[in-house]
Write a structure and sequence with these properties.
- The complex is a heterodimer of chains A (103) and B (807).
- Chain A has one domain: Rieske [2Fe-2S] iron-sulphur domain (Rieske Iron-sulfur Protein), CATH 2.102.10.10.
- In chain A, the strands form three sheets. In chain A, strands 2-3-4-8 form a four-stranded antiparallel beta sheet, with no helix packed on it. A three-stranded antiparallel beta sheet of chain A has the order 1-10-9, with no helix packed on it. Chain A has a three-stranded antiparallel beta sheet with strand order 5-6-7, with no helix packed on it.
- With 103 residues, chain A is mainly β.
- Chain A contains no helices and ten strands.
- In chain A, strand 5 and strand 6 form a beta hairpin.
- Chain B has six domains: 168 residues, FAD/NAD(P)-binding domain (3-Layer(bba) Sandwich), CATH 3.50.50.60; 116 residues, 3-Layer(bba) Sandwich (FAD/NAD(P)-binding domain); 159 residues, FAD/NAD-linked reductase, C-terminal dimerisation domain (Enolase-like, domain 1, 2-Layer Sandwich); 57 residues, no CATH class; 76 residues, Sulfite Reductase Hemoprotein,Domain 2 (Sulfite Reductase Hemoprotein, domain 2, Alpha-Beta Complex), CATH 3.90.480; 154 residues, 2-Layer Sandwich (Sulfite Reductase Hemoprotein, domain 1).
- Chain B has a five-stranded parallel beta sheet with strand order 3-2-1-7-19. Chain B has a five-stranded parallel beta sheet with strand order 9-16-10-11-12, covered by helices on one side.
- The two termini of chain B are 48 Å apart.
- At the A-B interface, strand 1, strand 2 and strand 5 of A face helix 16 and strand 37 of B.
- Bound molecules: flavin-adenine dinucleotide, protoporphyrin IX containing FE (HEM), iron/sulfur cluster (SF4) and FE2/S2 (inorganic) cluster.
- Flavin-adenine dinucleotide (FAD) binds next to helix 1, helix 2 and helix 8 of chain B.
């Protein structure tokens, strides 16, 4: 069973932008795409730990601010030819409220 | 809707590249079926030479394995030669009777080795050099037999000869012409090449015509006899005298051919539902035999198959590089010259170097180099761009000066480097890693190498080295991108110029509008194009285009420099490098209050607070009560000054005040890249004006202005622009140059790259010679800067950017 934590409202995340959520498991980045989908990844790039929340979001990807690896928002995998994966977390949006699960 | 059917005949490099480009554009438009006469999936034909030389195996050179076809839902028929096309019912038929219907047909049948029509050509032991089968036949022969003869002293023949010699055979190259590779080399360079190959053990017989191949009595070749009656032993004969486009299939279907399947600039044959790419086509009367042009064709063809309909193929300039280890040779363009052309030649017999450049009215049209090819891509670029070289003609032959080029240990000759030597200092990549990636991953472009190895992906100072390694590994398959038509990024086929022009002329004022108008192939771009577009829009339509923070790199979004641990640095402005005790006190207090671990004096005459947490930034700024120094931005950075006439005994002008005035007037100025200025009070030049984007030096009678200097990775001395008398003139000229650079440079080009591209004369024309234009430029800059305010002030801070959420 997922335990959903209420985090914020959709408006609080800029489109094509991100917010950082501090949790017991470390910082988690919440991303919002152009069409309002929300994704959550551990805020650590699989390359050298760059803070993904600070990157540029495009399509369903984010470009890491340190060395521009592209990371997929839905599964946390680096786009080829780079190889690596960062942890992703379940999120849902209901009535404009964003919920995150640490499961 | 039912999908359309695309059938491809010929499963080789050009065809499969076209499919790859097509799938990138529209993955689902077609049901794709491929027929290939060979039993292998697409492999890297040009790597047959290293396979023959024993440097690689067949498995290493497969470019697309069977799984690739499966993953992309492509029906693959190997070992099935197509023998008939029925254009009326739109069906192709293979040798074994299998049929496939098409809506669009793509012919990519490549070419075959030309076999000399001499008696004995059908004997065992006589092969062409084209595919895996030929290569295997040669490898087997090399194990059993001693004498090999290669007919044809061109690129392919020499690579075959080299490979066979490495496998222990005694190899003679027979050539009809008076010197080797006569289509790529002049007599001097060919002679140098021949000597080098002789030293490796190859033998040569020039100006010899083959009469007959002699049977050993059991159906195998035993010797070769020439027109003059002489004869030499031969257990293996490799015919490398040329290739013939495979047009029989197209011709039999009534598709117009003339030494190749004739195609238009959209890669269409005379039958509009049939396209053709690769060595089998004839475009504007030319059939190409190298990979680079075929890949250009593939891009264009895919664009039309995808129904985008905006690309044109307009022919390619090709270059040649022989893939024989230890031989450095390059040729491109027209190097034989003619009546209207001039030649510049350098020939150093002892060091084994030879260079010939052919010019026509100050444009470079051809080049041949032997021994030292480090500048080959530089020359090739100029040939392709048709660049006017009048300004640098005197130095042209000496190559691109690498004056003060830092990094890569001053290495500039890739061939002399061992595999263990480091090429890219930034990312710690050595030569061996690059060569391995190129060969095994099938890389052809600088961009590919950057993506896969990270070499040359950071500072770029090793780009020349990487290009050389690429060129000597893939031969003529490497073509440096033509600078003039390079698309802005993978999301579009439009160049920087085209994008800027559309923004200006169509009055596009948002990123989305621009992407829609120019048919971007992604919905919201990528991290490369969005920052560029954001700048182009702000530059073209100040006060109208709205800044998009989400399209800025984090540094400009947070107005601070991100550090490798995710903390930020804060550099407040100190106009002209002048500070006060009050400011210093505040800085000290802030550093203590927020536990800022490092306080550093920068190279730009101000103070850097390093290690600030992002959430503290707004508080730090408020307590500092100083304006942002834009040390994080593609913007006006710092104006460095010396103390000047106020204090210095040599000073003739008040450089400090001039610097302060410039920094204040042009504060908040967004630029294509960072922009640094310095002002010195006399020619002793203590502020180092010689390596700044704009460097100003006070002299007795006024000020000298220099532009496009650079103190970074590549140290470049600024060039003299103009000398002026008054303070106001300095402001006007500096502002006008800055605005010209803002309006014309590609995003992320420094002034040095920009001026290198357009030429100093262009800048002089707009900024110095034409006063009305200068004033207009200056006025546009001042208009753009009107009302700009400090991004660190409270009302400009977007709190959301800095606060984190919690659970
Ligand atoms: C040994 C060697 C070294 C080379 N070195 C270089 C180099 O250094 N640099 C460079 O730029 N180029 C080099 N080339 C040239 C380069 O390999 C070719 O330009 C390129 O492979 C041509 O691509 P293509 O797709 O047009 O033809 P191919 O790759 O030849 O593909 C055509 C395919 O179509 C198949 N086919 C033909 N007819 C039919 C049919 N009717 N039905 C089904 N299938 C059919 C053929 O069997 C073949 O597999 C080299 C070539 C060779 C042989
Ligand atoms: C992420 C990378 C970089 C960061 C964070 C960075 C940061 C800085 C900072 C904070 C300063 C002080 C400038 C000031 O006071 O305004 C500076 C100065 C300087 N930087 Fe960088 N820089 C980076 C990359 C580069 C690159 C790539 C080059 C070369 C092309 C370069 C060349 C310089 C030079 C020459 C100075 C001295 C300027 C002067 O003396 O006026 N920097 N840099
Ligand atoms: S540049 Fe000239 S005026 Fe300025 S400090 Fe040096 S010597 Fe003095
Ligand atoms: S840390 Fe993300 S790309 Fe290097």
């Amino acid at each position: 069973m997922n335990t959903w934590h209420e985090v914020t409202t959709l408006e609080e995340i800029p489109p094509l932008g991100a917010r950082v959520v501090t949790t017991k498991q470390g910082d988690i980045a919440l991303f919002r795409t152009a069409d309002g989908e929300v994704f959550a990844l551990l805020d650590r790039c699989p390359h050298k730990g760059g803070h993904l929340s600070q990157g540029i979001v495009f399509g369903k990807k984010v470009a890491c601010p340190l060395h521009s690896w592209n990371i997929c928002l839905d599964d946390g995998k680096a786009v080829a030819p780079d190889v690596g994966c960062t942890r992703s977390y379940p999120v849902k949006v209901e009535n404009n409220v964003v919920y995150l699960s640490l499961a | 809707m039912k999908k359309m059917k695309l059938v491809m005949v010929g499963n080789g490099m050009a065809g499969v590249r076209t499919l790859e480009e097509l799938l990138k554009l529209t993955p689902d438009l077609y049901d794709i079926t491929v027929f290939g006469a060979e039993p292998y999936p697409n492999y890297n034909r040009i790597m047959l030479s290293p396979v023959l030389a024993g440097e690689q195996g067949i498995q290493d050179i497969i470019l697309n394995d069977i799984d690739w076809y499966k993953q992309n839902n492509i029906t693959l028929h190997l070992n099935k030669k197509v023998v008939r096309i029925n254009r009326k019912s739109k069906v192709v038929v293979a040798e074994d009777g299998r049929e496939a219907e098409y809506d669009r047909l793509l012919l990519a049948t490549g070419s075959s080795s030309f076999i000399l029509p001499v008696p004995g050509k059908e004997l065992a032991g006589v092969v062409g050099y084209r595919d895996i089968q030929d290569t295997n036949a040669m490898i087997v022969a090399a194990e059993k037999y001693k004498h090999a003869v290669v007919i044809g002293g061109g690129l392919l023949g020499l690579e075959a000869a080299n490979g066979l010699a490495l496998r222990g055979m005694d190899v003679t190259v027979v050539h009809l012409m008076p010197w080797l590779m006569e289509r790529q080399l002049d007599d001097n360079s060919a002679q140098m090449l021949q000597s080098a190959l002789e030293a490796k053990g190859l033998k040569f017989m020039l100006e010899q015509q083959t009469q007959e191949l002699v049977d050993d009595g059991h159906g195998r070749v035993k010797s070769i006899r020439f027109k003059d009656g002489s004869e030499i032993p031969a257990d293996l004969v490799v015919m490398a005298v040329g290739i013939r486009p495979n047009v029989a299939l197209a011709e039999s279907a009534g598709v117009y051919c003339n030494r190749g399947i004739v195609v238009s600039d959209t890669m269409q044959t005379y039958d509009p539902s049939i396209y053709a790419v690769g060595e089998c086509v004839s475009h504007r009367g030319i059939a190409y035999g190298l990979v680079a042009p075929l890949f250009d064709m593939a891009k264009v063809c895919a664009n039309h198959l995808a129904r985008m309909g905006i690309a044109y193929y307009q022919g390619s300039v090709t270059s040649t590089k022989l893939k024989v280890t230890g031989v450095d040779l390059f040729s491109a363009g027209n190097f034989t010259g003619g009546k209207e052309t001039n030649e510049i030649v350098m020939h150093d017999v002892t060091s084994g170097r030879y260079k010939k450049l052919v010019l026509n009215n100050n444009t470079l049209i051809g080049a041949v180099m032997y021994g030292d090819t480090k500048d080959s891509s530089w020359y090739f670029q100029m040939i392709r761009d048709g660049k006017n070289v009048a300004e640098i003609r005197d130095q042209l032959i000496f190559g691109q000066s690498h004056l003060g080029n830092a990094g890569s240990q001053g290495q500039n000759l890739a061939a002399t480097m061992t595999n263990a030597m480091e090429v890219c200092g930034c990312n710690g990549v050595c030569k061996g890693t690059i060569v391995k990636a190129i060969k095994e991953k099938g890389l052809f472009t600088l961009e590919d190498v950057r993506k896969h190895t990270k070499a040359s992906a950071s500072c770029g100072s090793c780009t020349g080295l990487v290009e050389q390694i690429l060129a000597s590994t893939v031969g003529g398959a490497y073509a440096p991108p033509a600078t003039t038509v390079k698309p802005l990024c993978d999301c579009t086929s439009h160049s920087h110029e085209e994008v800027r022009k559309a923004i200006r002329e169509e009055k596009l004022i948002s990123i989305l509008q621009t992407m829609i108008f120019l048919n971007w192939n992604t919905t919201n771009g990528c991290a490369k194009c969005r920052p560029a577009l954001n700048f182009y829009l702000l530059c073209a339509w100040p006060h109208e285009a709205k800044d998009d923070p989400q399209s800025r790199f984090i540094n400009e979004r947070a107005n601070a420099n991100i550090q490798k641990d995710g903390t930020f640095s804060v550099v407040p402005r100190m106009y002209g490098g002048i500070t006060t005790p009050q400011q210093l006190r505040r800085i000290a207090d802030v550093a203590e209050k927020y536990n800022i671990p490092t306080v550093k004096v920068t190279g730009g005459q101000r103070i850097d607070l390093l290690g600030v947490k992002k959430t503290d930034l707004p508080k730090v700024w408020a307590d500092l009560d100083m304006p942002s120094g834009y040390a994080y931005g593609k913007a006006l950075r710092t104006v460095k000054t010396c103390v000047g006439s106020e204090w210095c005994r040599f000073g003739v002008q008040d450089s400090t005040q001039m610097g302060i005035d410039i920094e204040r007037a042009f504060d908040h100025m967004w630029m294509p890249h960072k922009f640094k200025v310095a002002v010195s009070g006399c020619p002793r030049n203590c502020a180092e004006s010689g390596i700044k984007d704009v460097g100003i030096i006070g002299v007795e009678s006024g000020w000298e202005i220099y532009v496009a200097g650079n103190g970074g990775i590549k140290t470049v001395v600024a060039q003299f622009l103009v000398k002026v008398k008054t303070h106001d003139e300095v402001m006007e000229y500096t502002g006008a140059f800055a605005q010209l650079y803002r309006e014309e440079a590609h995003y992320l080009d420094r002034t040095v790259h920009y001026v290198e591209r357009v030429g100093l004369d262009h800048v002089k024309k707009h900024v110095v010679e034409n006063a009305a234009n200068r004033k207009a430029l200056y006025a546009r800059l001042l208009y753009a800067l009107q009302g700009a305010t400090n991004p660190w002030s409270k009302e400009n801070i977007n709190a959301r950017e800095f606060e984190s959420l919690e659970i």
